[in-house]
Amino acid sequence: MCRSALRVTAGVLAVLTLLAGCSSGGGGGSDKGRRPDGAHVTIRVPADAPTISAAVSLARPGDLVLVAPGVYHESVRIDTARVTLRGASRDKVVIDGRLRQANGVVVAAPGVAVENLTVENNTQNGVLVTGSAAAVAGLPGRSGGYDTGDEPVTFLKSFLVSYVTATRNGLYGIYAFSAQDGVIEHSYASGGADSGIYVGQCKPCQVVVRDNVAELNAVGYEGTNASGDMYVVGNRLVGNRVGLTTDSDHQEKLLPQRGAVVAGNLVADNQQPRTPEQADGGWGIGIGVDGGSGNQFLRNRITGNTDAGFVITATVDIPPNGNRITGNTFGANGVDVGWTFPHATQGQGNCLQGNTLRTTEPARIAATAACPVPGTSRTPSGTWTSPPAPAGIPFTDVAAPGPQPQFPHATTAGATAVPAAPALPDTASVPLPSTSLLADGARVQVS
After folding, report:
1. Transmembrane stretches, by residue range (predicted)?
2. SS3 101
3. 302 within domain boundaries
4. Whether residue 25 is found in the same domain as residue 173
5. 443 inside domain
6. How would residue 25 be classed by pLDDT, with cut points 50, 70 and 90?
């Protein structure tokens, strides 16, 4: 232990002495000379710094930390704005928490990009992006999220998580909490004991979740109290216990959830038994709305979910109002669309239009609740028999992922400039996913 600590300390001192052992481009060796004022450099791990954390501590805004293949047993916290952390190989650069640390990567500064690496075996999150000091401290809430108590809401603004594999983490694979103006894209999440990808406590979010694959999680994607310019577009959410949820929850601030757009996603076969069991126990559901309002669900393919394809319900005291289900294709679900309100709280103004579906509960709501409906129109409630849910497995036992697509030119591209706000999708151009995407491993493509 002492020898290792001395080696790390000596490495960091050497890098500091040589002004970060930096290079100005993606190829060739390291430039050990003085950093010109304002220059952006590449810090290589382990060539220029012995650990990822050591390299990140040396980085200045605009720098690239480029990590060579290897297994890194550390938790990386990025506190410097506009740093890019990138693996040279997505599958071979592995940040492994060994179930001894809460988070693999914590992004606590704006404009940071995390790219082309794998994070696994953390007790809480693979990648956490947050403006909340309480969340960084890492005390989970009662059923997964973070209860930040009296802490004022502080947003981290501008982030990018791209080409990241997050697998077998105790809460969330990729978790954006109290963060705005960001993108989660081209990533893969499995084995999330709560959900694979999660966006929570933002208003307005201005967050885009696109072209990701989430499988073998308790929930593929979850958006809690995530409101306003919140886009979930062109993702493959297949083989979880629940595919996607958008909900309101008192455990987080900024109630109620409203104003998300869920478009062009493949949401299929979400009754996989070899998955972790979420605290709420959902199973066999494609999309669930729990106390969320004003959301749009456009041209999703929702098929093969044994309980229900699309469920709307209420929390005990927060109704779901004004959700629009438009142009979706349903097939082979237990119930295609089910609206149910077991508590006194009931929704208003929810409607359907132009969907291809077979069964609803209550019956005939495709006709009786056809869009547009008055905002005060009471949403009817029905019941159906749900199949029993099998017991879950430990998140550590979820099957390991196969190779995933690489970040283009990972070792030669410079640092990624993350925009102050992302370009928001033109949802009118997002297509219905093809049936060919039901094949194993197929990915949704969004232009």
Report:
1. none
2. coil
3. yes
4. no
5. no
6. very low
